[in-house]
Structures are given as structure tokens and as C-alpha cells.
Design a protein that fits this description.
20% strand, Thrombin, subunit H, Methane Monooxygenase Hydroxylase, Chain G, domain 1
């Protein structure tokens, strides 16, 4: 006899052991999908291990996409991002605070193309004039995120991907 009690299990977008991108943090691996009690309700959570920061985060399944968690891009998307960093671009605002906010907003969007745009823009800006500390940190973060995702996408070592990115940035 079936139980009449219905348990609605939310549909999970991501699977156990899938590698995903957590915006502003990098690539993580879903190590578990567990139900946990929160405010007298049972919620389903992705348990994600972020190797780059050696951190475990719990993300409610129903909020994951809203937060910006997404699958790692395809090899084709990675190649497009690598191509983007070699292309010409519009010079950015000279006011570093405005430029910083624009680049931070792009990074928060989490798309690999936006991350590549930030890397390209700040790299070329640093060749004109030394970046302020906050922008330098933003560049370092963007570069780390780009290297992290592309190395997983293309299944190449991170140092090899970083060298590839710099060779493309310097190919002007």
C-alpha cells in the first residue's frame, strides 16, 4: 500500500560529482545532494567543494541558478573566450572607480565571456598604467577564475592554460 503523504522533491539541475562554476569563487564539485532542516522546513542542498579555496558550501537546490551556479562551459565556449582575449576592444573609462565597478559587475555575472573580458581589459590597462591595488586584485581573481574553468573545460593543467592565456594577451 502506498503512503498518501506526498514529498515533493525539487528537480535538481546538477548531478552528484558534477563540476560547476560558483560565481566569484571558481570551479567546485558537487560532493553530495542532501536534505537539511532550515527554519522548520526540509530543504534540498547541493554540497559543493571548492578546491581553489579549500571550502565547502551548501547551496539550496532551488536557489542555485539564482545565485548563478552553472555547468562548466563546453570546449567550444572555452575556445571562444580564449579568442576574445586576443580581439580588439574599446578602451575603458579612465576613472578607476567606475572601471572597477563595471568589471566587478561583469565578474559577478559569472559568464566565461565576461570573465575573459575583464582579464583582457585589465591586462591591457595595466600595460598603459599600473593598476590600483583593488583593480589588481580584481584582475588576479578574474584570471584565476578563467584559468580554473578553462583548465577543467579543456582538461589541461592550470599552468598550461595560464601560459596560453598570457601568450594570447601578449599577441597584439
Amino acid at each position: 500500500m502506498k503512503s498518501s503523504k506526498k514529498t515533493s522533491t525539487p528537480k535538481t539541475t546538477f548531478k552528484l560529482n558534477q563540476e560547476v562554476v560558483y560565481p566569484l569563487q571558481g570551479v567546485g564539485k558537487i560532493t553530495a545532494i542532501e536534505e537539511k532542516k532550515f527554519k522548520d522546513r526540509m530543504l534540498l542542498y547541493y554540497i559543493i567543494y571548492l578546491e581553489v579555496s579549500d571550502m565547502i558550501v551548501m547551496v539550496p537546490v532551488d536557489k542555485a541558478e539564482e545565485i548563478g551556479i552553472r555547468a562548466i562551459v563546453s570546449k567550444a565556449e572555452s575556445q571562444k573566450a580564449l579568442k576574445l582575449i586576443t580581439e580588439d576592444y574599446e578602451p575603458v573609462a579612465t576613472d578607476w572607480k567606475m572601471r572597477y565597478q563595471m568589471n566587478l559587475d561583469l565578474l559577478k555575472s559569472g559568464s566565461v565571456m565576461d570573465i575573459a573580458t575583464v582579464v583582457r581589459t585589465l591586462y591591457h590597462r595595466s600595460k598603459v598604467k599600473e593598476l590600483p591595488i583593488l583593480e589588481r586584485k580584481l584582475f588576479d581573481s578574474a584570471l584565476k577564475l578563467l584559468v580554473d574553468e578553462i583548465s577543467f573545460s579543456l582538461d589541461k593543467p592550470k599552468d598550461e592554460v595560464e601560459a596560453l592565456i598570457f601568450s594570447k594577451l601578449e599577441s597584439d
